Amino acid sequence: MTEFDIDLMTSEALARSAGYRGVTNAFRNWCAKLHITLMPGRRGYFDRKLVRRRYDEAQGLANR
Question: Whole-model pTM?
Answer without folding.
Answer: 0.84
